[in-house]
Amino acid sequence: MTWGKTYDVVVVGSGGAALAGALAAAHRGLSTCVIEKTDRFGGTSAYSGGSVWLPGNHVLARQGVDDSVEKGLTYFGAVVGDRTRPEVQRAYLETGPVVADFLENTVGIPIEHRPFPDYFDAPGRSDNGRSIFAESIAAADLGDRLDDVRPTVAADQFGIDIDRSMLDGGQAWIARMVLALDATGRADLLLSTRADRLVQDESGRVTGVVVTGADGSETRIRARGGVLLAAGGFERSAQLRKRWQDMPTADWSSSHPATGSGDAVAMLDTVGAALDLLDQSWWCPATLFPNGHAAFTLGLRSGIVVDGHGRRFANEMLPYDQMGRAMRAQREAGGDEFWFIFDNSAGDRLPAICVPEPRRDEMTEAGLWHTADSVSDLARSLGIDPAALAATVDRFNELAERGVDEDFHRGEDPFGRFFVGATAPAQCLRPLAGPRFHAVRLVLGDLGTKGGAVIDSDGAVQRPDGSAIPGLYAAGNSSASISGEVYPGPGVPLGSGMVMAYRAVADMTARLGGTETVATS
Fold first, then answer.
1. Which of 139, 255, 295, 354 has the lowest CB atom count within 10 Å?
2. What is the CATH number for 414?
């Protein structure tokens, strides 16, 4: 084998997990290469709110949040159960504070806590949340690197001119990690470079990766310590979404169309990796737009969500993954139409968080937004039985007047009250009284798929027989999620991805002859 370049660690992907792994390598003195197939760093992480779920870390303690690793383990175990391996769950939770400390006190990324409740009523839950975020960063601090960071979904998929003078959320993480990698002097960050296939030696060890550059040239890149696959899932592959999840399209995912195309899963399959959770995604309700894309929608403040028969089917203020799963259950039962019904009591705008905010005129022209002066007229516009929708609205209004949702318990959970600023369930139940009524088309969206390689507690990719594929590691949505079929809290995707990438690099370091092992809290 003739190698074009050689590094200690090769990372495929440039989202939060990938860059955390690259930083872990570069700060250990290892030569590092980051391979990103698009012309921007960040992947789906750049679209995210930037929450990172790491119980018991020093940032939480500094800001007065009462938490610990043991509380986190209690909660995570109660929610996830034995769907994933307990030793991997423990590795994630126990290493979380170490990674938070590394990112802030070694790498130099300023971090803060922002309240956001955990998603399940289970032992160990934190109503204040365990989310930590990279502090916002000024575009001026990025210099020429600003254009290398993937912008928000509003700009990236909808062509909306946005203010980028300050970068927050997931973009702040990506921007700060890219700058930190540049500062190490030990990392090559390659844009517009596609990883095509893994290279194995006679023993089956993964020794590198074959890539194609922007000019079409092919290069074999050697990885002395190992290859870390953190290139997202297969959310943008219509073929794989249909095959494994029976989804009608890949256009409703929140990821960029050029990312999450299943490259990592294909490479994993080629080398005989064990795969799991392929039928699972980080589900969410999403508003359908005229361009065929759908935008993550959460934080409903009023209104109801109905199916194609005009019936409520869930608590609309559920955490978004749970609401998405309720929508998925409706789809599996034969229902594939959802409408967000609300009145104009707060103006003729969507009473929820959706970025970009849908424009009523454009949506109406596309048949995705309907307006009427009565519930019956609205139903006729939607092709729904007027009597059925009227009965649903009447029933909801009756429950709202009582202040108790006997049907679906809306407002009883802290998550639902969080976005309304409510202290009691009744504040989450506002009657639909008109005088105008609206309906906006919702679809089953996602924040990415969560099926991929089965990994051990060091992020090493496993074969079906439980043995590790030497030299190959996975993290983020390229691996089967540590949280199994549930979404425990805000920032679990980023948090678990960052931690397992960190642990993977520590294992590579040890195998390269280093003496460092991963500490635990």
1. 139
2. 3.90.700.10
**The pLDDT of residue 151:** 96
Q: Which residue range(s) make up the domain with 332?
A: 285-446
- Answer yes or no: do 367 and 476 share one domain: no
Give helix 386-402 / helix 375-382 axis angle, nearest 10°.
130
Burial of 419 (0-12, 13-18, 19+ CB in 10 A): middle
Clarify whether residues 262 and 298 are in a common domain.
no
> Which of 420, 446, 472 finishes a domain?
446
Q: What is the pLDDT of residues 397-414, one digit of tens each?
A: 999 999 999 999 999 999
Whole-number pLDDT of residue 288: 98
Specify whether 257 is located in the same domain as 335: no
- Average pLDDT, stretch 286-290? 98
Tell how strand 218-229 and strand 468-474 pair up: parallel
Task: Classify 225 as helix, strand or coil.
Answer: strand
Mean pLDDT across the chain = 96
Judged by DSSP in three states, 317 sits in coil
Dump strand ranges (E) for 263-406.
Answer: 275-276, 281-288, 294-298, 304-307, 338-343, 353-354, 369-372
> Which letter, b or e, does each residue of 337-371 get, where b requires 16 or more Cβ atoms within 10 Å of its Cβ?
bbbbbbbeeeeeebbbebbbebebeebbeeebbbb
Distances, alpha carbon 468 to alpha carbons 17, 264, 461, in Å = 20, 17, 6
Which string of DSSP letters, residue by residue, matches 182-202? HHHS-EEEESS-EEEEEEE-T
CATH code of the domain covering residue 459: 3.50.50.60
Question: How many structural domains is the chain composed of?
Answer: 2
* CA–CA separation, 515 and 331 (whole Å): 52
Residue 446 gets which letter from DSSP?
E
pLDDT one-digit tens code per residue, 318-367:
999 999 999 999 999 988 899 999 999 988 899 999 999 999 999 999 99
Instruction: Answer yes or no: are the C-beta atoms of 485 and 277 closer than 8 Å.
Output: yes
Residue 241: inside a domain: yes
115-151 per-position pLDDT tens digit = 999 999 999 999 989 999 999 999 999 999 999 999 9
The tens digit of pLDDT for each residue in 456-478 reads 999 999 999 999 999 999 999 99
Q: State both tokens at 81.
A: 């159960």
